Every structure is written in structure tokens, then in C-alpha cells.
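User: Second chain of the day. Same drill as before.
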Amino acid sequence: MSGELQPAEPVGYRAILHRLTRLDAEAAELRAEAVEWHDDRLAAVHEAVRAAEDDVRAAADEVRRAQRDRETVDAGAADIWSRFVHDVGPSAERFGTTLPPPTVPRQRTADAEEFLQEASNKVRYVPPARPLGSAATLLFAAFGFLGGAVGVLAYQLLRWAGREAGGDFAVALPVLALIAMLLGPVLAVVAAKRTADHRGVGLDAAAVATVLGTGLATAGVLYAVLRGPG
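Assistant: Same format as last time:
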């Protein structure tokens, strides 16, 4: 039996086994690369989804902010229109009591607040000044009388102070006294202007002349009376 021939090992068996082992290793490497590529792509997709969700939330916040701004602007425009209709009266009611629909402005560089302020300035109602009556004329004459009297009183007080102080004050204060006497009627005009604005009465040139004339006349008469004859 020992002399019998053994079957020969197939030719290339080890080479084929080595090749299969190498192919299995290459397949494992390819599978690992595929898994890594898949994980990278999945992470990139998740990051893109998160970024898109952030953009959506930011856009929603901007939409809500724009809606609040629009509601604020609409409320301001409605208030301006309501006050305009109320102040002007029936002549403005023909345009309607509700706010007209908005229009696209020609100049788009300004913001809504500037447009509202411009509209408020344009429709601000200023009632016409009432004409002067006899009562107003007497009132302005009274202002002139008081202004002249106060000017003479200031004149007397300053001259008395100069005499009491003596020295340089005795020279300077009489000059100031004359200025104070002339300022009395001028200050009366200022007081009359404030009163006229408060009552909606026009202070025209005639009213100013009434105040100044009465004031200067009063100051002149009181000055002459106080100085006495000679």
C-alpha cells in the first residue's frame, strides 16, 4: 500500500484561497467605507434639517414681528384719521369715517413712522383765529395798563435803590430804571400774546399797538404824576 500513488493536490488551491481571503478583506474595507459615507451623509442631512428648522423659526419670528408692526401702524393711521374727521367735521365725513385702504408710497426709503408723522402734520387741524371783539380789545388795553404801571413801579424802585446804595449804583441804577420802565409795555405784549393763543384770539398788529400804546401812555402819565410839577 505504501507503494501506491497519492492523489495530487489541486493546482492553484492555495492561490485561490489566498485570493478569496484578500477579496473578503477588500469587501470588509468597502463595507466600512460605505458605512462611514452613509454616516457622514446622514449627519450632513441632519445638520441641513436643523439649519432649515432654524431658518423657519427665524422667518416665523420675522413674520410675527412684521404683523405686530403692521397692527401698530394701522392703529396709528386709524387714530390720525379719526382725529382728522372729528376735528374737521362734516366736510371730512364725505370721505368716510373709516380709514381708507393703504397705498404704496412713491418714496419707499422712509419707514412707516416717518409717513405717520408726516400725515399727522398735514392733517393737524388748526382752528382759525377768532376776530377781535370789544372784550378782547379791553383785555389787551388792560394788559397795556398793567405793563405801564409795572414799568413805572420798577423805575421808582430802582431809582430808590440807587439813591440808597450811593456810589456807582446811584449812577447805574437810574439808567436801568428807564430801561425797566420801557420794558413794562413790551412784557405786557408777551403776556397778551400768551393769553390770546390760549383763547384762540388773533393777536394782530392792531392788538399789539393797543397793548403798547396803552402801556406807554400809562407809563408816561404815571411818570409825569410822580415827578410832579417842575
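The chain has a mean pLDDT of 76.

User: Great, on to the next one.
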